[in-house]
Amino acid sequence: MGVLLAAEVRRILRSPRFLIFTVGFPVVYFLIFSGLYGQGDTPDGAATTVYLMVSMAAFGAISASVSTGGRVAVERQAGWNRQLRLTPLPGWAYLVVKAAVAMLVALPALVLVFLVAGLFKHVDLTALEWLRVFVAAWIGVLPFAAIGLFIGQMATADSAQGMATVTMLLFSLLGGLFIPAFLLPSAMATIARLLPSYWIADTARAAVAGDAPALQGILVCVIWLAAAGGLAVWRYRRDSLRV
Amino acid sequence: MDESTPVAIRGLVKAYGAIRAVDGVDLEIGRGEVVALLGPNGAGKSTTIDALLGLTRPDEGEVRLFGRSPREAVAGGSVGAMLQSGGFPDDATAGELVKLTAALFKKPARPAIERAGITGYAGQRYGRLSGGQKQRVRFAVALVGDPELLVLDEPTAAMDVGARREFWAAMREYGRTVLFATHYLAEAEEFADRVVLLRAGRVVADGSVAEVRALAAGRVVSAVIPAVPGADDREIDSELATLPGVTAVARQGRRSLLTCDDSDTALRALLLKHETAHDIEVTAHGLEDAFVQLTGEDN
């Protein structure tokens, strides 16, 4: 499993497109937004820059993990997973590796946005605060790894990229990563609170302050993870029996 | 089930919707045999191979490889396969693909790389290789587990004649049990010990190349028979079928094709009956005729 994981990561790092879209975009957005909205305080008390940093890191992590899952569709169409089924690698290990890859590729976006924020935008957190925000955001990626995997198992090679992009944008917009949830109309805010994209950012911000994650947030994320993961496994099995 | 029997398929049935892609296939392959699975498109070759490798679950019947289930045999490294649709990611190098597979099997990669002859381009990305080179990389991947049985779906499709010969020479030298599906009759004729002909999901012939060829035994006498007053073509043909030595009659344009088990007797009788018959040809069947005759829609 470790070897497959290593091989997968090596392949992804070779793709310049991946680096530009999933690492470059969030960093650039963060610089633009933090330049525009400056240093004022938001109503919930956190510095705007920290707020934006978390939002854009979450956006980058979501976009990386969802589009990585989408790549599965291309491989499926080509027959790579059939080929892997001719090795001792069990089917569950294939899915676990794919999910793990999605988690790993979320790291550069997180780390780079944090790094840029710390180095150039005067975000001054203690080592412990950095660690907490990083861990919280990273764990929050889990539902999106599963969602990406489901898209990869369901979409065709042609539709996967589009579906991944739309999914990632919808979650980011509705989850309040581009427009803060407290500025949204109340109906929209209610919707936001049902999405893991809202909670990945909310939990990470809470972590900065040293607060425990909200119970609703954990619940929403676990439900999304279980639902998308279950659907991905179901599609994988159907695929294996038929094709 | 005998553990030394590489392939034992009993009563295999696989349907996709209303279409029975494989409709009751029995096949046993002994150690060291090189068997060609031959048939037109849609005959059930790929479905049979998928079931053999555990890539599809049969509706009925049983597949045992070395006395084990396909999945067990494949995971245990007893079976190596080249799939027709076995697509490798374009952004991985040839060497990485072989090494990855080798690591999954916990076997060294080098012997397979050398045997398949891909050392020269192991560092290149799979997507940048030629069709023949890709096929060799897939061959290397199939060899990695050091399998007792090789299952190859259209293995030489992208190779030229020279590469194809080289490929089969390497295969002979390897000396394992081989089952390969092919469209190329010449390839089956030249490299297989045994030919299994599939048609519409069933085995219609199974034997040595010579035996299968003999199934379409005898010769074909073809001639143009001038019109007979008061009789149409069909009546002429059905009458021809009653001539001594003739087993079947078909029509091809103006020609009547008489399949004969004794073409000499048939020809004498034909000329007695229709002395103006002309453009007469007598041809022997090759494997191709056997193929066409045994796999054709109406026979």
Automatic annotation (TrEMBL), chain A:
<feature type="transmembrane region" description="Helical">
    <location>
        <begin position="214"/>
        <end position="234"/>
    </location>
</feature>
<dbReference type="Pfam" id="PF01061">
    <property type="entry name" value="ABC2_membrane"/>
</dbReference>
<protein>
    <recommendedName>
        <fullName>Transport permease protein</fullName>
    </recommendedName>
</protein>
<keyword id="KW-0046">Antibiotic resistance</keyword>
<keyword id="KW-0472">Membrane</keyword>
<keyword id="KW-1003">Cell membrane</keyword>
<feature type="transmembrane region" description="Helical">
    <location>
        <begin position="50"/>
        <end position="74"/>
    </location>
</feature>
<comment type="similarity">
    <text>Belongs to the ABC-2 integral membrane protein family.</text>
</comment>
<keyword id="KW-1133">Transmembrane helix</keyword>
<dbReference type="InterPro" id="IPR047817">
    <property type="entry name" value="ABC2_TM_bact-type"/>
</dbReference>
<dbReference type="InterPro" id="IPR000412">
    <property type="entry name" value="ABC_2_transport"/>
</dbReference>
<feature type="domain" description="ABC transmembrane type-2">
    <location>
        <begin position="17"/>
        <end position="239"/>
    </location>
</feature>
<feature type="transmembrane region" description="Helical">
    <location>
        <begin position="18"/>
        <end position="38"/>
    </location>
</feature>
<keyword id="KW-0812">Transmembrane</keyword>
<dbReference type="InterPro" id="IPR013525">
    <property type="entry name" value="ABC2_TM"/>
</dbReference>
<feature type="transmembrane region" description="Helical">
    <location>
        <begin position="163"/>
        <end position="194"/>
    </location>
</feature>
<feature type="transmembrane region" description="Helical">
    <location>
        <begin position="95"/>
        <end position="118"/>
    </location>
</feature>
<dbReference type="InterPro" id="IPR051784">
    <property type="entry name" value="Nod_factor_ABC_transporter"/>
</dbReference>
<keyword id="KW-0813">Transport</keyword>
<feature type="transmembrane region" description="Helical">
    <location>
        <begin position="130"/>
        <end position="151"/>
    </location>
</feature>
TrEMBL record, chain B:
<keyword id="KW-0067">ATP-binding</keyword>
<dbReference type="InterPro" id="IPR050763">
    <property type="entry name" value="ABC_transporter_ATP-binding"/>
</dbReference>
<dbReference type="InterPro" id="IPR017871">
    <property type="entry name" value="ABC_transporter-like_CS"/>
</dbReference>
<keyword id="KW-0547">Nucleotide-binding</keyword>
<dbReference type="InterPro" id="IPR003439">
    <property type="entry name" value="ABC_transporter-like_ATP-bd"/>
</dbReference>
<keyword id="KW-0046">Antibiotic resistance</keyword>
<dbReference type="InterPro" id="IPR027417">
    <property type="entry name" value="P-loop_NTPase"/>
</dbReference>
<protein>
    <submittedName>
        <fullName>ABC transporter ATP-binding protein</fullName>
    </submittedName>
</protein>
<dbReference type="InterPro" id="IPR003593">
    <property type="entry name" value="AAA+_ATPase"/>
</dbReference>
<feature type="domain" description="ABC transporter">
    <location>
        <begin position="7"/>
        <end position="225"/>
    </location>
</feature>
<keyword id="KW-0813">Transport</keyword>
<dbReference type="Pfam" id="PF00005">
    <property type="entry name" value="ABC_tran"/>
</dbReference>
<dbReference type="GO" id="GO:0005524">
    <property type="term" value="F:ATP binding"/>
</dbReference>
